[in-house]
Design brief:
With about 350 residues, the chain is an alpha+beta fold. It contains ten helices and ten strands. The strands form two sheets. A seven-stranded antiparallel β-sheet has the order 1-2-3-4-5-7-6, covered by helices on one side. It starts with 14 loop residues before the first helix and ends with a helix.
Length: about 350
């Protein structure tokens, strides 16, 4: 079973990546920065509906700061959802600002509520680092999902990705027989596993992805979406990039073992790789631009790159991986292989 032993080292956003973010509209001036939200006066522990400590705290700010903070956060929400048009935000208010006490980025979670119907949404404010940016951008370009995020200096704003956290889905749906189509769920996990491995997104255990349940006209469809991109192309071992090897994912792996044969697994793997190849061809210029940045960036230690390139060369039976000196080069070699074989 793969296990990450050391805290990940953050890497700065270099000039090449900055130019990419500006070119594609991902960098813009924000009305408030991550550091501004650290000036809170008190924090109250948050508990879930089962009475368990969530390890998030709800923050209190002085009255002098609160008015400016609330307006700035509404402006950011308008940037994410309405291209900055504040006129559509007049019925919204900031209900809560939470801070996560665990994890590498110590994110803030902002809860925004519509005062007319009490509908709510979230977004996140985090410390930006290059690994997370590359992870978000590759997810946006190579997966079936689209992600809204913006960067200003070292502040990253991410939209909330809706869905049921993997661990919660296992406990409240899968283990109690509330999954209507286990075969489709198992198929989606195979495809998710393949997406992570092809672009080297690591640490996808059940707390780092959500599961969407989508009614189809005849049945139920499932979509698994990564929600944490901190471990993009960082760890040395191949198994870190394969969700199938995490013990937290055993409930869904057991479903796959029950319903699928090695032949059907290979079929779904080939289908997903063909879809990734199609997305690369369709967005060739942008994919080329992000990989040009990534192949020159430092995203991990040389020793980790050396171990992973050997494991990938052995896995694919392709010596091109042995020539790679950076994590971005390994990602590019992996994607080149996908396009060539599809």
């Amino acid at each position: 079973m793969p296990k990450i032993l050391l805290k990940k080292v953050p890497y700065e956003i270099d000039k090449r990546l900055r130019l990419y973010l500006k070119k594609y509209g991902r960098e813009m001036k924000l009305p408030i920065m991550y550091a501004d939200l650290l000036r809170y006066s008190e924090g109250i522990s948050l508990y879930d509906k089962y009475g368990q400590d969530t390890l998030w705290i709800s923050l209190l700010y002085s009255q002098d700061d609160l008015q400016h903070i609330n307006l700035a956060l509404k402006q950011i929400y308008a940037i994410l959802r309405a291209n900055g048009d504040m006129s559509v935000m007049q019925h919204l208010y900031v209900d809560r600002i939470d801070l996560c006490l665990y994890g590498n980025s110590k994110p803030f979670r902002i809860r925004v509520v519509n005062k007319i119907n009490d509908n709510f949404d979230y977004f996140y404010i985090k410390n930006a680092d290059a690994s997370r940016i590359y992870g978000l951008e590759l997810e946006h370009l190579l997966s079936p999902n689209r992600i809204s995020y913006v960067v200003d200096e070292n502040t990253l704003i991410e939209e909330h990705i809706a869905g049921i956290p993997g661990a919660e889905f296992f406990d409240n749906y899968l283990k109690v027989g509330r999954v209507e189509n286990e075969i489709r769920l198992a198929k989606e996990f195979v495809k998710f596993n393949e997406r992570c491995f092809v672009r080297l997104l690591g640490d996808m255990h059940s707390s780092n992805y959500v599961i969407e349940i989508m009614p189809d006209f005849e049945d139920i469809h499932y979509r698994i979406r990564a929600i944490d991109f901190d471990q993009q192309s960082y760890e040395a071992r191949k198994s870190i990039y394969l969700p199938q090897y995490f013990k937290q994912n055993m409930p869904i792996i057991e479903v796959g073992l029950k319903h699928m044969t090695p032949t059907t697994v290979r079929q779904y793997q080939k289908e997903e790789r063909a879809m990734i190849a199609s997305r690369i061809r369709y967005q060739h210029t942008q994919v080329k631009d992000i990989l040009n940045c990534m192949t020159k960036a430092k995203l991990s230690k040389p020793g980790s790159v050396a171990i992973l390139r050997q494991e990938l060369a052995d896995h694919y039976g392709d010596d091109r991986f042995l020539e790679c000196k950076k994590m971005g080069e390994l990602v590019k070699a992996s994607l080149d292989l996908v396009v060539e074989r599809n």
